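To fix ideas, we quote verbatim a fold written out as tokens:
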Amino acid sequence: MNLLTGFRKELVPTFASHTHLRGVSAIVGAAERKELALGAADSVKRVKTRKAEEDLDWYADGTQGVYEIRDFIEFKTTWHPIGV
């Protein structure tokens, strides 16, 4: 996971269209939600947005849990053969 900071008007278009980003979770306004959705469709990435207009309780159990990032986690299995 990477946390990036900067100016929204510069970051949102880059996050939406960058092919090396596999997922974006953001609290954004209506125009930015549309921009993220369109850019994500071109680069096939996961997008989870919340409306900036709505209040968010950062201390609520649902916000603090692992379930908020569950859609962005990829599980991979590696097999290690032992002996012959």
